[in-house]
Write a structure and sequence with these properties.
Blueprint lengths: L1 E4 L8 E12 L2 E12 L3 E13 L10 E14 L3 H6 L8 E13 L4 E8 L17 E8 L8 E12 L7 E12 L4 E7 L3 E12 L2 E12 L8 E10 L5
Antiparallel strand pairs: 1-2, 1-14, 2-3, 3-4, 4-5, 5-6, 6-7, 7-8, 8-9, 9-10, 10-11, 11-12, 12-13, 13-14
């Protein structure tokens, strides 16, 4: 995935990239993820994750999937010094990067056409400050969705709702409530979606194609900020490749 953030804002070049792979095995699914966020010439954030998840519904005798997952995550950030910063010789920048580990956990229940999920990120709230304490805040998220049956040309009509809670140290809690809807057309070939919250509105589309035992999907999203002027919005594009394994 590539995300161009807040295009059109003068003297700001924010970019985000994301690469992930998942492999399903008999004992569960394993994943690996690498992300890169950068403010060109000034700052970079990187994240590396190793993930495991599994469906435990058979072990606890539920009639629907209940999937739990755990990620071990390494967070790091780096400041890129210019000539002025070097000349100041600020002791804060005796080192220009810092990293730390933290786990994430999540659980997803899928009773019938419902999906309900809860995740807790940055559980250990690691300190990544260069000289003074700078803890990464814990984030708690809850989301739900309901998939309706097909209606005329519309396939898999799915409204969604989610809430996230983030509490930085010595700061007010940040609560974000979001909603959206997605639907597909032409035998799950074309998809459209829209949504938003009090900070941004978004719309996007997808193209999904299957050939033989493989398939790919292209997604595009446009996000328009409601609290930032002089921006033509954020543009996000992603490519997903899938290879279907034979069941044993």
């Amino acid at each position: 995935m590539y995300n161009k953030l807040f295009a059109g804002v003068d003297n700001v070049n924010l970019n985000q990239m994301y690469v992930s792979a998942v492999y399903p095995a008999e004992i569960g699914s394993f994943g690996i993820t690498v992300t890169d966020f950068s403010l060109w010439k000034y700052y970079k954030e990187n994240m590396f994750l190793m993930t495991y998840s599994n469906d435990f519904s058979e072990k606890i005798e539920l009639g629907f999937p209940i999937i739990a997952g755990l990620s071990l995550k390494y967070l790091s950030h780096t400041y890129i010094l210019d000539e002025r910063t070097i000349d100041i010789d600020d002791p804060v920048f005796d080192k220009i990067s810092k990293g730390a580990f933290t786990p994430d956990i999540g659980i997803l229940l899928k009773p019938y056409n419902f999906s309900l999920g809860v995740s807790v990120l940055n559980i250990l709230q690691p300190d990544i400050g260069l000289k003074t304490e700078d803890k990464v805040p814990m984030i708690i998220r809850f989301g739900t969705a309901y998939r309706f049956n097909d209606w005329y040309l519309f396939e898999n009509i799915t409204p969604t709702f989610d809430v996230s809670y983030r509490k930085p140290a010595d700061n007010n809690a940040d609560i974000k409530i979001s909603g959206g809807i997605e639907t597909w057309f032409s035998y799950h070939t074309f998809g459209v979606r829209m949504g938003g919250n009090d900070r941004e509105i978004t719309t996007g589309f997808s193209y999904n194609k299957t050939f033989g035992k493989s398939g790919f999907q292209i997604d595009y999203a446009f996000l328009f900020p409601l609290e930032l002027g002089d921006s033509s919005g954020s543009h996000r594009i992603s490519l997903t490749y899938k290879h279907f394994l034979e069941k044993r």
